[in-house]
Amino acid sequence: MPGSPVQHALYFSRYCYFCQKVLMKLRNRDHRIALRDIADHVHRAELIEGGGKGQVPCLLVYSADQSQLWVYESDDIIKYMEQHRLLA
Ligand SMILES: N[C@@H](CCC(=O)N[C@@H](CS)C(=O)NCC(=O)O)C(=O)O
Predict the structure, then answer these.
(1) 63: domain CATH number?
(2) pLDDT tens, 1-21?
(3) Which of 29, 32, 71, 81 is deepest in the core (most CB within 10 A)?
(4) CB 61 within 8 A of CB 7
């Protein structure tokens, strides 16, 4: 739904192989995952503060009750996206 709040955000670096693995899954697909490059220091700070470490890729999931889930590990992120049908 256009204009609805972000529910998922992927923190990534352009130079990271593991991030490319996840980004390849999103390429040419309809998805509503916000992409947050940690080259932007604001995004990097969010990742470290919220997730606890600066490792990328990391998928942030905003739940309806305002809690946040930070999913690290490229394989776990891909599994999460598939299981929760985030890829159209
Ligand atoms: N096993 C992890 C490896 C991720 C990884 O090694 N990421 C590197 C960049 S390619 C990283 O963020 N290193 C910095 C850190 O761990 O703080 C995955 O599959 O996602």
Answers:
(1) 3.40.30.10
(2) 555 677 999 999 999 999 999
(3) 81
(4) yes
